[in-house]
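Lab channel / #folding
Pinned by the channel admin:
"Please post every new chain as: sequence first, then the structure tokens as a reply. Keep commentary short and put observations after the output so the thread stays searchable."

First post following the new format, from NK:
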Amino acid sequence: PPSRRAAASAPPPRRHTPKTPQVEDLFFNLAVRRRAIAAGRGESYHQMLRVCGAYGALWAARGVSVACKRSGGACDLQVPPGDALRALEAVHGKHQASDLVPFACSAIGTPERPLTFKLEGHVSRRGLEISAKKSDYRHRFTFFVNGRLVESRPVQRAVDEAYANRQDGDVGKAKPFAHLALTVPGDHVPPRRPGPRRASHRP
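Reply from TO:
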């Protein structure tokens, strides 16, 4: 019958194979950035590692693994999928991860207080000694809004003040560690407006 011949001639279903996205030609000053990344040192490369580690810890519970390596070199960062705390241990070390506890709070909007939000992540039990290096301050506080990595000084100060006001709070340079993700309705988030692009000139 014709139906059998059509079924026999139909191509077999394709199997799903994992894909590795490749990002290239992303910046207008790509040549300068490529030299910095190839060197394996400098602010650009460390910032890339930080961003990969932050998203790796966020996406671990979704079964996503994140890795960062230089072309032809060893893997500098490997964040396994599965448990978020295990992912944070891969990014920040076992000593840091051993002091973390899960954190979650949420609210459903009402006519009097219309804001609906969900905040979850991991925070440290106590303040940790942070050096004066700028990179250490960046690594200790990670904040996402609707899945996008952002920097929010008001939120960071609020978290610092919450720990500073504890009766058992640490003194000196001790600061809390926090990896938080905030989910709010889209109309509560202003659109991102990139600033003017300026050419980079280096000797």
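NK: DSSP finds seven helices and nine strands in the chain.
TO: also worth noting, The beta strands are 66-69, 75-79, 100-107, 117-124, 128-129, 141-145, 148-150, 174-175, 178-183.
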